[in-house]
Amino acid sequence: MAEHPTGLPIQLEPLVTRILAPNPSAFTHTGTQVHLVGSEDLAVIDPGPDDPEHLDALVAAIGGRRVVAIVITHHHRDHSPASRPLAAITGAPIVGAAPFGPSDAGARSDAAFDADYVPDRVLGEGERVGGTGWTLEAVATPGHTSNHLAFALIETGALFSGDHVMGWSTTIVSPPDGDMTAYMASLEKLMERGDRIYYPGHGEAVENPRRLVRGMLGHRRAREGQILRLLRAGGHEVPAMVARMYAGLDRKLWPAAARSVLAHLYDLRGRGLVREEGETWTIAA
């Protein structure tokens, strides 16, 4: 059951309104949370899927106000496709995460990516976009994807965390574009910040960010320890590891779990702790 109806604007604080897109799934929870930032003029963060009913709901919530920017944390298909029709309606530029270059299309992208995403302006660490009474600052948080950005609302201490930190589950880190080493470093980076609250792309607001991030780091380190213990008992292929590590998980989600295990293995290999022999992983000698 959705936490609130799709398409209904919910004001979270004076400068932030949330709208739930109608795309619930095992990977999106109740759907993509779209955030409008501002009062007189607006930014639209991650407008979600290109769905006519959803687009109508966004336009109604905007209510004729000027949209300064359509801001994208990363270009997964549940986050960025509505940016194009919304830009056509509002005239606002699409800004934020970098697109894939031509050489990346095969190596890094897959069905989850919005292949048609082309921003008008790519934002890097510390770059800003703003309007009347509000300023969004890009915070590079690669890991879930190589181009993932979070956005800090300078005036209130809120952070729009995209899929890097979600309000219902840990995120998927799927190689080759997802990178566990980068993901862990980005979590550590957030631990050093003093953000008051997170507004994620999926799930409810996170009111104690540091506690959640600390728990996410602990969860990933526990998974890493689980992998190392399995490999100390002998070599394993990834599917066999998933069957042992995720025995209680719905088998339909095992392919996603396998991507996460592989991301951990790549991280451990980069640190010299494991090695790959064909499809079998072992402890490094």
From TrEMBL:
Metallo-beta-lactamase domain: residues covered: 30-202
Top-rank taxon, per record: Bacteria
Entries under InterPro entries matching the protein: LACTB2_WH, Metallo-B-lactamas, RibonucZ/Hydroxyglut_hydro, Sec-metab_biosynth-thioest, WH-like_DNA-bd_sf
One GO molecular-function entry: hydrolase activity
PANTHER family registered for this protein in UniProt: ENDORIBONUCLEASE LACTB2 (PTHR23131)
Keyword terms, alphabetized: Hydrolase
Protein's name according to its UniProt entry: Glyoxylase, beta-lactamase superfamily II
